């Protein structure tokens, strides 16, 4: 029998045997394969839903924290506290709170939150006794503030009691249940998850609780609609139904029926409980193939408090469904196998006849290439498949030649770059012995590349911070100890003496061997420059201190001669004025006036030099109280000018009380002084809103959370002079128009900048000027 015939028969027998074996195997495994495929498909779909659920939970927790820690909520509580019970160390809050700017800010913030998050339908603030203070909710698609008479007592809710025990920065997530209002399940029914966060004052006392209600019904519905086979159930941690195909079984705890998954399917519940108890807090997955059902379950934990919160998603498909699919698949398989068998027989006979005839050509070509031959001499063409194989061999050899040339060029190119780079590069093996070094690196170490190869890296570089002589390994050991980028300095060794080197190291693996490549840089000049800069900074600091001391001493010592000039001038004016000519009296009056101005200038200079010397005496300053005291002090001037002065709610700031009073007195005094003729001054002091300015300045003011303003209806300041007015002794008007020595605003700027803030001036929308003081949030801890 010919070889081709024998190969055909052998192939046919192998195909028949394989088909029979696979058919028997598939008959046993098909059902399990279908089950596994369905389970994987459901788990993949469920993974996306769980990821979306977890993302929503994290967003809910983040929103609750953000709102509960908002400064304007704390300020609102400060204005609303009316009783402090020292005996119980608790704060009682008036449930009938006055409406103010902070109330509007809170309501607007809640409105924006519910508008931005469609799943949020309620946001409320509770007092420490559980009474609702503010509630904003979505009703019929419209977000609105609930009237005070409709507010409720939430003191008996579990989320309120749990939130009161939390620390700052913590959020409590409740069980998922139906929303209840006024002691009954709200209609229409809403599947609800609540996030509750405590609100603390500046002194760490609990002020109240902030609560967000989130509608998680969309997640439940999406989970259920993903199922293509069987039923889906969603349970809470106690086994009660959050979702059941029959709605009367859902939320049985609230409906008073106490219907659970364990009561309906006790054996399945017992098996799932064993699987879930292996991981009580994290995501757990379990698949069960029982006699009557195929069960795919997922446990999703969303809160890890004292009582863990989680839901269980269970899909149950009847086993009969997969048996029917198995029979249908086997029928299709038998038909496909029969067709495949016929095709294989024909192709085996055809190709074996052709391939056997010239199979020896493939052997010859293989031996030729294996021996290193590249110039293939093609056999005579006969129009069969072997001709294509020979040509493919020739093409393969040409490609190998081309790739070898490219690899050679790349190697030359990389070597050229390696040698030309303006930094020292050294490559070592894992033990620290040098494999290669570029010209620049060898030059730094006053050596030659070839003489360095094979030597230990410790002969050229050493570290004082590590006992490991292999500095490349020491670099990675140090890198694992720190989380921030760092500079690793070592000592370079050369015959001219040691020198500082900055080292960066990378590690890579080739053929399961580890190599290191290090970049070295001589930083001698940099360190020398840094040393010079440090010396210059110390000199500059000493010079500034001397200059400040000189200004203080000079202005202090100058007061005595000026006082004598004033005293003698006044004495001369009182006792000898009659003996002086008219010009003499004029000169004397000008001398006394000049001496008074000199005394005022010296006092102002002395005051300017003192600003910032009492920063260690900082404390919390009630700016509003200080402003009201200043108004009392200026009562006579205010009455004379028929001025209107209004003081709005102002924050407490961390600063030196005397300097803060000086700042506010200068600003309010200027507002009363620089007024138009025949115009009664109108002065307003209040909290500054960054939205009142342009985008650029608003972005800058984001780093200054405390800002307030003093505005007037006076003469105003042109934009080109708004920087100049803060320079000492700069005046925009003559003394005949407005009294002063031009140093008040310079003192204001020095006080504000000493507190880390900024002061600027812009237009009052109603006419006049508006001075804005913006300060960073600070306190004793900073």
| N-to-C CA distance | 98 Å
| Percent in helix | 40-55%
Give the percentage of residues in beta strands: 15-25%
Question: How big is the Rg?
Answer: 43 Å
Shape: flat
Average pLDDT, all residues = 78
Q: What is the number of helical segments per DSSP (H or I, 4+ residues)?
A: 21
Question: How would you classify the helix and strand content by structural class?
Answer: alpha+beta
**Biggest pleated sheet:** 7 strands, antiparallel
Poorly predicted sequence stretches spanning 5 or more consecutive residues: 82-97, 279-284
Number of strands: 29
Domain Histidine kinase: 553-779
Protein name: histidine kinase
GO molecular function: ATP binding; phosphorelay response regulator activity; phosphorelay sensor kinase activity; protein kinase activator activity
Pfam families: HATPase_c (PF02518), HisKA (PF00512), HK_sensor_dom_bact (PF21623), PAS_9 (PF13426)
Question: How would you sum up this structure, described in words?
Answer:
Pfam families: HATPase_c, HisKA, HK_sensor_dom_bact, PAS_9. With 782 residues, this protein is of the alpha+beta class. The protein is 47% helix and 21% strand. The chain has 21 helices and 29 strands. Strands 3, 4, 5, 6, 7, 10 and 11 form a seven-stranded antiparallel beta sheet that branches. A six-stranded antiparallel beta sheet has the order 18-17-22-21-20-19. A five-stranded antiparallel beta sheet has the order 13-12-16-15-14, with helices on both faces. A hairpin with a 2-residue loop joins β4 and β5 (142-145). α1 crosses α9 (319-357). The longest helix has 66 residues, at 3-68. The N and C termini lie far apart (98 Å).
